Amino acid sequence: MLSPAEVAERMGIGPTGVRDLLRAGHLLAVPTAEGPWIPAEQLDGAVLVKHLVPVLTLLHDAGYSSEEALRWLTTPDDSLPGTPLQALHENRATEIKRRAQALGF
Q1: Which of 8, 25, 33, 35 has the smallest count of CB within 10 Å of its CB?
Q2: Which residues of 54-78 are buried (b: 16+ CB within 10 A; e: fewer)?
Q3: DSSP states of 78-91 as a string?
Q4: pLDDT in tens, 34-93
C-alpha cells in the first residue's frame, strides 16, 4: 500500500495529479483513518498498469463501487489463474475486459 505522496513521487506527478486520478476513477484507494492508501499493484513502475483505466470504467459502468472494483481486481480466480490485476500485469487484458464487461449484464 502506498500513500498518495508516494504514488505522486513514483509517477513523477504532484499530489493534485494523484487526487485527480482518484477522483476520475482511474486509480483506486482504500480509505483509512489516516487517509487513502493506494494498492501498489495498480502501478507498473511509474505508470498505471496498462488497461487498468478501461477495466475500471467497465466495472463502474456495471455498478461497482470503487471498493467493490478493488475487491474484484484483487480476488484470486482459479480460472485465470491469479487475480484480474495480475492478469493485467501479464498483458492478458482482453480476458479481463471481457469479464468486466459481462458483469454489467
Answers
A1: 33
A2: bbbbbbbebebebeebbebbeeeee
A3: TTSSS-HHHHHHTT
A4: 999 999 999 999 999 999 999 999 999 999 999 999 999 999 999 988 999 999 999 999
- For residue 4, the SS3 value is helix
Q: Which three cell numbers stand for residue 4?
A: 498518495
Residue with cell 509517477: 11
Instruction: For residue 103, give the 3-state DSSP assignment.
Output: coil
Q: Tell me the pTM.
A: 0.90
In the chain, what are the domain boundaries? 4-102
Can you tell me whether residue 104 is helix, strand or coil? Answer: coil
8 A C-beta contact, residue 96 and residue 53? no
Return the amino acid letter for 39: P
